[in-house]
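[09:14] KT: can someone run the structure on this one? pasting the chain below
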Amino acid sequence: MLFYSPLRYPGSKRKLFNYLERILTHNNSTPQVLIEPFVGGGSVFINFLSCHEESRAIIADKDELIYSFWKILFTEPSYLINFIRKTRVNLKTFDQYRYISYHPAEFSRKKLAEACLFLNRTSFSGILNNSAGPIGGREQKSIYKIDCRFGRENLIKKIKSISVFKNRVVVLPYNWEETLKYVAGKDKYKNARLLYYFDPPFYKKAAQLYRHHFDDASHKNLCDKLIKLKKPWILSYDRAQEIQNLYSAFTRINVSMPYSINSPAKRLEKELIITPLKLPKIKSKSK
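[09:31] RB: done, structure tokens below
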């Protein structure tokens, strides 16, 4: 059974997780620690911990809101649960948390965690980017209102079920390079079976989807570092030709993923999986 994250996220990896597990099986790999430097919605590490009871995870995100959300979830889940029960889901609250997202340095970690969850559940497609508006628009004339994705009991259930992993997760406020340095600097990880999973900002439309995104130099810098990384890694990207050119020396495969951004209904899009590991084939479905 797959776990569902409390966060809606552009390019959610929950349905990709089964294929990532197939990669591990195909390579006879049983990682002791999963490192996820772009944790985002967290679907991969959550389901990894569920399936591998003896394993641990190190998660990080440069985005202050996302880091704060996961940190509070694993240290004070009751705080988030109380927030979900009591917060008013309306445009006034939306604007208050949007202001917080503009000025993260002015607010506590708890307030940033609140802002992350509230804006994620009330913004169009769960996008935290400051340009994203509320579900239903400012006029709230749509059949879908601002609170339609804020099912309180369901969110509380998710947080309770995920918080049981608290002793198996390290949450870091780092970017991906700082995360790699953190792991490399810890003696206890030097001989451990590690697996890095990278899910960086997409190449296309990234400025519309994320609060922090890459330029061309950043995409290339990640590629250069992965070429030198000695531990196993798996990378997921959108299928931009520029990315395929960067990683032309590595094994690649396209996996179908459901997306709903900029569309009234979910549609299947191909996502690129890149890794130095051997990739199992994907069986094509007959029409």
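[09:33] KT: thanks! The beta strands are 33-36, 56-60, 169-172, 194-198, 233-238, 251-259, 267-275.
[09:34] RB: yep, looked fine to me
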